[in-house]
Amino acid sequence: MRIVLVGPPGAGKGTQAAYLAQNLSIPHIATGDLFRANISQGTDLGKQARAYMDAGQLVPDEVTIGMAKDRMAQSDAVGGFLLDGFPRNVGQAEALDVMLKDEGVKLDAVLDLEVPEDEVVKRIAGRRVCRNNSAHVFHVTYNPPKAEGVCDACGGELYQRDDDSEETVRTRLEVYHTQTEPIIDYYRAQGLVVTISALGKVADVTARAMEALPTT
Q1: Helix axes of 61-72 and 31-41: crossing angle, nearest 10 degrees
Q2: What is the pTM of this model?
Q3: Sign, CA torsion 104/28/179/12
Q4: Which of 40, 58, 97, 196 is the most buried (most CB within 10 A)?
Q5: Please, are residues 67 and 38 in contact by the beta-carbon 8 Å criterion?
Q6: Of 178, 194, 136, 161, whose CA–CA distance to 16 is shortest?
């Protein structure tokens, strides 16, 4: 099974990707992991990416595409994969099509996690993180601490990260609508898009996705 996972920030892509990849016995290939691995290993692509990032510039598509191509060529991905964060725009989607065609394979599905914009803002803007340990994360609505502003685990101060402010979230959504959302229409023209609601419990969303995916 070869799947591309798409959806706005706050849709739970990372969480769903991990569960789906496990259920389908395929590797979860996330853009963030690709960058971290290439940079930490000092690959040529990693060095190129680091140079752009250090200069405060966006990493060009060809670098991201190169990293994805190398990862998909690894032995564990020969029988399938789940892509999370790639492709991020139509140009990358076209490059992926070329890569797969060269290998004589094709995508099975593009899973679109659908979440209302107001819910995305509520999910992200409601997050609170412990200053002592960033792994301690709470939510003002869905997972509130016992005492407001205080971490249950260590008593540290809970705060809202700048990236989680409503203004920043809406900016990220605008970027998603402009750059990434067009790939849904691109893949819909190929009959590959499967749209499911990402509302509800994590396990319910996973079950919904598994049921909606085509059988091979």
Answers
A1: 90
A2: 0.90
A3: positive
A4: 196
A5: yes
A6: 194
CB-hemisphere CA count at 13 Å for 58? Answer: 4
Of 90, 107, 105, 122, which is closest to residue 11 (Cα–Cα)? 122
Pull the structure tokens for residue 163. 């990236």
At residue 215, the pLDDT reads: 77
The catalytic residues are 13, 88, 127, 161, 172
Mean pLDDT of the chain: 94
What residue ranges of the chain have pLDDT lower than 50? none
Give the integer Cα–Cα distance in Å for 30 and 44. 19
Rounded Cα distance, 185 and 111, in Å: 12
Cβ density class 42-70: b for 16+ within 10 Å, e for less: eeebbebbeeeeeeeeebeeebbbbbbbe
Q: What pLDDT is recorded for position 216?
A: 57
Distance between CA atoms of residues 119 and 114, nearest Å: 10
CA distance linking residue 202 with residue 95, whole number of Å = 32
d(CA 187, CA 100): 14
